[in-house]
Amino acid sequence: MTQKRGGIKEQIKGPLLIAVGLALVAFFGVALFATGGTNNPPKVPLAASVSGAVFVVTLVMCATLMMIETPNDESLGKGSGINRSSAKLYAEARAKREAAAREASKNKTSSAQHSDSTAHTPEQPSA
């Protein structure tokens, strides 16, 4: 069987390399600058904590960006319920509004004609 291009290993390799690289830069940067000079011992626990935090944050950001970039399947925009397309919903709502507006204007003109026809009739004498 042929394996798909861009499988799970290829998708994970890039973000892991980025996260490890940034964590190493953070480790050496914090170890160097937190020491406070050459006469003091390096602050390895602080550097390890900061590099671990940088690693986790970088992985979370890469995962979020990968999820945003992944397009949805076309079948998700069709159907009913939560899978309904917003364009269809808008078209249906617009058609209902236009039908209601036509019905209201039709009723308004028929009621105006009815009031005009009753206004011109002469009164009946009472017996």
How many distinct helices? Answer: 3
Straight-line distance between termini: 102 Å
H-E string: HHH
Q: Please report the total strand number as a whole number.
A: 0
Question: Which band does the percent of strand residues land in?
Answer: under 5%
Low-confidence stretches: none
Shape: elongated
Rounded to an integer, what's the Rg over CA atoms? 36 Å
Proportion of helical residues: 55-70%
The major sheet is characterized as: none
What is the averaged pLDDT score? 80
Task: Tell me the structural class.
Answer: mainly alpha
**How would you classify the quaternary structure?**
single chain
Features:
127 residues; 69% helix
Structural overview:
The longest helix is centred in the last third of the chain and has 34 residues, at 86-119. This protein has helices spanning 8-35, 44-69, 86-119. The mean pLDDT is 80. The protein is elongated. Helix 1 runs antiparallel to helix 2. It has three helices and no strands. It is mainly α.
Topology:
Layout: H1 8-35, H2 44-69, H3 86-119
In short:
The chain has 127 residues and is an all-alpha fold. The protein is 69% helix and 0% strand. Helix 1 (8-35) runs antiparallel to helix 2 (44-69).
